[in-house]
Amino acid sequence: MPKRVITEVQSWFKRDRIVSNLELFQDLIVISLCLVLFGVMLIRLGDMFFAFLSPLDLRQITSDILFILILVELFRLLIDYLQEQRISVGAAVEITIVSALREVILRGVLEIPRDQILGISVFLVVLGAILVILPWMASIFENMKITTPETTEEQF
Asked: Is 88 helix (H, G, I), strand (E, B) or coil?
C-alpha cells in the first residue's frame, strides 16, 4: 500500500501531468470568464431595453450597443482560445479598434483635446497597419516553418 501511494505521488510530479493539470486549471479560468462575460452581456441588454422605454439618448444607446459588441467579440476570443489554445491576434486588434472608437463616440470628437485626438488617430493607424500586415506576416512565418526542416536536412 505505501509503495502504491509513493508511486501515485511521484506521478503527480511528472512534467506532462503537471502541464495537463495547469492547462485544465487555465481552461477553468477561461470558462469562468466566459460565464461572467455572458452575464454582463445579459445585464447590459436589459439596461439597453429599459433605456428604450425612456426618452432616447442616442449617444448612450450607441455606446451600449458598441459595448455589447465588444463583449461579444471578447466572448468569441475566449471561445477561440478554448478551441485552439492560442489567442487570435486579429480578433484582439479588432476588439481594440472598436473599443477606441467607442470611447471617441462616447465622449464626442469635439470634446476631446486635440492632442488626444492625434494620439488616438496614430493608435488607430498602427492597429489598422497590424490588421493589414498580419495575414502577410502569418504567410511568411508559415513558409519559414515549411522550408526550414527541408533546408536543414539538405545541409547535412
From this structure: coil
User: C-alpha cell of 81?
Assistant: 482560445
| Identity of the amino acid at 125 | V
Give the amino acid at 129. Answer: A
- Kindly state the DSSP code that residue 156 receives in the 8-state scheme: -
From CA 90, how far away is CA 133, in angstroms rounded?
A: 10
* Sequence ranges of the domains in the chain: 2-155
For 80-129, what is each residue's pLDDT tens digit?
898 988 888 888 888 898 888 888 888 877 788 889 889 999 999 999 99
For every residue of 94-150, DSSP letters joined together read HHHHHHHHHHHHHH-GGGS-HHHHHHHHHHHHHHHHHHHHHHHHHHHHHHHHHHHHH
What is the pTM assigned to this prediction?
A: 0.68
- Contacts of 86-95 with CB under 8 Å at 24 or more apart are 89/130, 89/134, 90/131, 90/134, 93/127, 93/130, 93/131, 93/134, 94/131, 95/70
